[in-house]
Task: structure prediction
Amino acid sequence: MNLKNVRTTLATKLVPPLDAKPLAALAAGPVDPVFAAVVIGLIGFGVIMVYSASAVQATTQNHDPQFFLKRQSAYAAAALLAMFVVSRFDYHRLYKLTYPLLLGVGTLLLLCVVGFGHSGGGAARWLAVGPIHVQPAEMAKLALVVWLAYSLAKKAERVNTFTVGFLPHLIVAGVFMFLCLKQPDFGSAVVLLLLTFTLLFVAGAKLGYILGASILGAAFGVAAIRFREYRYERYLAWLDMDAHRQDLAYQPFQSVMSFGSGGVTGLGLGRGLQTLYLPEAHTDFVAAIVGEELGFVGVATLCTVYLVLCARGVRAALRAPDDFGSYLAFGISTMFAVQSLVNLAVALAILPTKGLTLPFVSYGGSSLLVNAAAAGILLNISRQVPEDAKDGMTPEAPAVDVADLVAQGAQR
Result:
């Protein structure tokens, strides 16, 4: 199945073809209210959960139980402002900013590797700018999505060739992945690879190329774990958490305990006990505190919210007026989906520990601001529709059978 064919067929049925209408006829309609409400709700929920998860640590380390609350609130305000500003910025202008953004982020990643990175948790992933720590790996995800969308839209039908449509994208993604691995940041490298493969698939790259590269990527991932001692030891500890619950598996073991103690409805907001034992509960493992304080109901609701977030992103991709907007929306939606899924899987000990945040909820300025900017781009894409399609499908437009469209895409 080629999702590009599905998007093209949907666009043809819902709106007039772009070649029959000048680009100036594209109207800036209202943003997607559901997507905007979900993002704002997640940011607000994140501020509450960061406070609940960090009050104990903030008291012992900073002598101020509201230390992380104040910082996250400032990040949240900046993120909402960034999302609003970016949502008013026509995403077509990113064409001229694509290469400066890619080179700028690549330079920041390189600075982390060559010795300017601020170390924390055994990895030099941050650049210190006064009191502010910037994490270039978070920016790399969005920068790569923007460049891939630009390049794939520009190459159009040549995407199905190896030397023009496949190899250059894999090389650029490989450079970014290498720089992430040197920090080291294995989780971000995996996300970059998944983003690249997803967009190549959506754009119509040959499935054989993607499968072959996936096999090579999986082999490289296995080697990166097996021949890097600390990763291999963490992997073995994850396989037998009970035997390593006092050392390497302490964090995931306590995280699972949090989910278990929460039961169906949870212990109540602010009443979780694992904040006393779970290290850095307000960052990568904030989902565990959600599970303990809000229970299965809270976690299930959170998963549903992320599902709605990604579904609205895909909807914006299918309704985008051009390939560039479609690829951008698909890439951003994939970025949210992969990070949410991996973070929750790590918190539940389904996957070994990775340093990936829960989008819009985990503590951290870099992640929150980058995700907010990405959400703003997606909101702008949802606004860019032809004038006579502003209110959705026109009365005289035929009904669309999505199953038929998928079948047509598979045949093509």
In short: Residues 340 and 358 are 5 Å apart (CA to CA). Strands lie at 26-28, 117-120, 123-129, 132-134, 384-386.
